[in-house]
Amino acid sequence: DGHPLDYVHNTAKEMMILVIALVSATVAFRSLFSCNALIVLPRGSNRNLHRASAGLSSTPFRRHIITSSLNSSPDDSVSDAIDSPILRSLYDPLPTRIDCNGTVSNENNTTEVPKWVNKVTSGTLATEEGSPHELYFEVHHRLSFDNNTQDYSTARQQRGLVGLVLHGGPGAGSFPKHTQFFSPDLYEYVVLLDQRGCGRSTPLGEVTFNRLELLVNDVEMLRQHLVKEGLIDKWIVEEEEEENKQLIQSTQPRNHHPWDVILGGSWGCTLAMAYAFTHPNSVRAMVLRGVCLFREKEIDWLFGNPPESSTVTPRAGVSKTSNLRDLAGGSSSVSMARPPATTTTLEEIERQSVAAQLFTEQWKEFSSGVEDVENNKRSVLHSYYHRLLGTDANSRYKAMRSWFRWEMGIYGNGFKKSEDSNEDKNRLLVWDPSRASWVFEVAQVHNQKSVASICVDISSSEHEEILRSLRRFSTSSSSHTSSKIDENILEPLPIEDTIAARTESKVEDIKQPSSKNGNGNTFDPTTYIPAQAMLTCYYSVNDEYCIHPFNSFLSINPPPSIPLSSWYSSKLPPPSSSQSYGSSISPDLPFPLPPTIAIQGGNDAICPADTALDLHNVWEQLELRIALKSGHSMYDSVIAGEIVKSLERFGHSLMMGEEDDVLLKATGV
Question: pLDDT per residue over 463-504, tens digit each?
């Protein structure tokens, strides 16, 4: 009924409003999509490469989303829903710089406050009289933001758990990144210790007063030092709690402040096992990665000379039949299938007993120029011993470079892998002690807080052939005997500079690196101390001396008078299939070892699966999780996820135990 131009005007106006609405909706959708992507992606995912390393962004809203999702607590409102299964990954590093008012300083000078910050206390610890060693340690205290005080709480109300990291090597040292395996929601404290002669402990590379027994003493001394100095708040006993403390102590051992969980990797597994064996009431649970017990056969595998008669060319995916019946342990859940036609013969197994037979090119370079001054299977290793620990700095530097090329060549390559789908790469073979059977799992989970793997298959018998293929050591490899060792005759091999000099003359000269390193500082190879190579070589050559008195225990070879269960048994780890953990773990362990989860790479060529399987064979309560396509690295995506999940399983269960203790005190029961 109106003017025709009114229709045109109104139509144009409506179209303009529609265009503006569409543009606004597009902008809003893109913003929403970006934020949601940050919420749903797993911690540490490669899809989050745009995120700043500090976990902060220049956009306040996006920064808030990152902080909430990556360092979330169980009662956070951020959605955990995801479109597809994911691998758990490391937690982001927490901000560490706090000003005098308790606020976090950051490079962007923003006022946004992260949920968690990391307060680091470092210190040194003197060792026994006569020892030159001074140990370096760090206590990483995760503080949460208190909305009431608008500050990061240091009060005891958190009462989180205490984790200890035992690094590998020997001699690798600890790093702040190791703390990122521990959930801030569960672990209030993570303690790092540089073992003797490495990291920031001094003197660097020192081998005197350096053996496993003393390292075990160091771990216990550190625990007692943290108690005495009050560096762990939850270990401080206040006067008003004395009565309740006496009540608890009346039913528990007097050793009342154990490490809640020890995370040990590679050589760290050896130290963790020896420590738990010596101080069973000082640790409540363990997570082991890349299982190593430093047995003679393990050292011979990595550094032993190949047999001169060896002519076998290793094949990818070759299986072995050694010790399968022992491995199965006669369990009714494992049926004995006939080995396939591709299985190697016993003769081939005997002849493929060392890594040098599989990594022939790397070994050729490693042993190049080495004079066979000793007619034994460790002559190459002994040659490096004299060069690395001798007084000739130039010879030591060249030996170090060759040593690391050998180790890293194996570390990086692992055993030959076939082209597998992503699902196969995430596949786990798990010994479930609650079922007393092997099961298949997929390492992925359904959300960022889950610890339960998906796609569990408990019916397949495929594990039988996989267990055969995981074995690498020769069945004739020597092992320590259970006979009594005369401690008076144990001593390290003397270091002979004449051998080092004679060998050095045969080694091709290596071009020296630039005089400036990446930081612009002068680098002098003649003063460089390759602590890890030196200590690993020292312990490997003098294994019987360095491991004493744990030889029989770590060789899984107790005297006949000692039942296996008195050395190798524990409570079961908390289940992975349920979030209702219950208080299944307590400090007063009635077993010689604490509940333990071991994580092993199926393609680990540094610490092959033999040791993990041998340990499983005598320790039925040990949960063994084999990432079939993973290697030795703790940062392998599957291995890292399994470590995080295992720590959280123990964390939830132990926190339930903490709540029970609080209830005991409150009720006076």
Answer: 888 888 899 886 544 444 444 555 555 789 998 875 555 555
| pLDDT score for 238 | 52
Which 3 state secondary structure label does DSSP give 488?
helix
Ramachandran region, residue 250 (left: φ > 0; alpha: ψ -120 to 50; beta: rest):
alpha
Q: Could you report the per-residue pLDDT of 529-575, keeping only the tens digit for each?
A: 999 999 999 999 999 999 999 999 999 999 999 999 999 999 999 98
d(CA 335, CA 159): 47
Each residue's pLDDT tens digit, 367-387: 986 765 566 889 999 999 999
Cβ neighbours around 362 below 10 Å, total: 18
CA 629, 635, 641, 645 dihedral sign is positive
- Residue of 56 and 482 predicted with greater confidence: 482
Q: Which residues pair with 146 in a beta bridge?
A: 151
CA dist 347 to 44, 156, 240, 321, Å? Answer: 46, 62, 70, 12
Which tokens is 525 given? 């190879």
Phi, psi of 263 (to 5 degrees): -105, 115
Long-range contacts of 359-368 (CB under 8 A, 24+ apart): 359/409, 359/410, 359/413, 359/605, 362/405, 362/406, 362/409, 362/410, 363/306, 363/406, 365/402, 365/405, 365/406, 366/402, 366/403, 366/405, 366/406, 367/305, 368/402, 368/507, 368/508
Buried/exposed 253-289: b ≥16 CB within 10 Å, e otherwise: eebbbbbbbbbbbbbbbbbbbbbbbbbbbbbbbbbbb
Q: Computed from CA positions of residues 438, 624, 608, 602, in that sequence, does the dihedral angle turn out positive or negative?
A: positive
- Report the relative pairing of strands 623-627 and 454-457 from DSSP bridges: unpaired
Q: Over 70: is that where the pLDDT of 425 sits? A: yes
Tell me, what amino acid is at 270? T
495 contacts: CB under 8 Å, gap ≥ 6: 385, 386, 389, 390
Note the pLDDT tens digit of each residue in 146-178: 777 767 765 545 568 999 999 999 999 999 999
Residue 98 is predicted with a pLDDT of 54
Q: What is the largest CA-CA distance in the chain?
A: 116
For 447, the token pair is: 């959300």
Q: Which residue has the tokens 């470092």?
A: 122
For residues 35-60, one letter each, b for 16 or more C-beta atoms within 10 angstroms of the residue's C-beta and e for the rest, the string is beebbbbbbbeeebeebeebbbbeee
Q: What's the first-to-final CA gap in the chain, in angstroms?
A: 88
Q: Which amino acid is at 400?
A: M
